[in-house]
């Protein structure tokens, strides 16, 4: 027999206790007292609080079990069919959005290249810097309109002062100007396909400048990857039928400026987190500033006789080209947001291959077998280079996670040392910890 003392509350007495004797039965599950009758009529007289105490005990047990599940790390219930359907729908929507962004980026970017070549070569527009400036001006105008309509997209920043902009943004704008302006000039003398082959040389110079500024650690695998890229680019140049030194040097100058822009962005903007739209808002004016100076210095004499008449006769082509420039920025930002910057570089290579095919089909470009071998070698080197960069990124992420885990363990040890001199948490005083829906502690 087990004897329990139950409180017998009375308005006139402070506390009175009556005894209740319960036979020690054992259920089939092995839990003592689990098969007790739940009918209140079976409880002895003088124990009116038995059913109340039993329900209270069950509530406490339920709360305690919920608290124990939370602390013991028990797995949460599997999502319902409705939740699974919602997750599946979200995944399909994200896949559709990603595919749409990638296709639009490739389509808009290649359309811009072909339209710019049409304006420069077929319309005989002799002001490539001015053409590039139109695209940058349209982009900045669109960002300003977006900021006026939705100020939260480009909030005011206290860390981007006029002095900071001059010392950090202007140098990047200078090399951005060189990338865009010099990148237009090769189309006068080189084929679209050969220009795309030369663009694949960018990782070689980027690694070289990164090593010079100690932003990248030297490793033989990286050197091997860029060596393969350089060799493939050399074969592509040797196989070009309509080779021209002028256009090739202009393209190499554009690649040098692109590599320097990437390196300076890492140095000058280190620790400055910017959304893509913010970056356009602060960087585009610096690019426009140098494009204007460069254009006035080199093309001013052509404005009256060449530029203005062609613009007046073909305004739609220039408006579309400017809008496509902004479209390239938007779609590239979408791809980076959904994937990453490294994946954007991979997609750019795929886009270049598609543009080479378009050059052959639409512009009658000639690609020799030596060029195909060279470009294939370049793609192999680029794939190896990308694999190495992905591996280093994963290693850096794991190292960061290990550091965070070490810091967490150190903090846990401090908590354990502190807890020896502090009282344990009394769960009965924090009933909200076990009563929150879902079994998780209340955050409030």
Total helical elements: 14
Q: What is the element string, with H for helices and E for strands?
A: EEHHHHHHHHHHHHHH
Give the mean pLDDT.
Answer: 76
Shape: globular
Domain Sugar phosphate transporter: 104-382
Organism: Pycnococcus provasolii
Biased composition (Low complexity): 40-66, 431-444
Region (Disordered): 1-85, 400-444
Protein model, in words:
The structure is a single chain. By secondary structure, this protein is mainly α. The protein has a domain at about 105-395. About 70% of the residues lie in helices and about 5% in strands. It contains 14 helices and 2 strands; from the N terminus they run ββαααααααααααααα. The protein has a two-stranded antiparallel sheet. It is globular. It is a multi-pass membrane protein. Keywords: Membrane, Transmembrane, Transmembrane helix. It comes from Pycnococcus provasolii.
Q: What's the helix and strand layout?
A:
Layout: E1 2-8, E2 16-22, H1 50-72, H2 81-122, H3 128-149, H4 162-184, H5 192-199, H6 202-212, H7 220-238, H8 245-268, H9 276-299, H10 303-313, H11 315-338, H12 341-362, H13 369-419, H14 432-435
Antiparallel strand pairs: 1-2
Helix pairs in contact: 2-11, 2-12, 3-9, 3-11, 4-8, 4-9, 5-12, 6-8, 7-13, 11-12
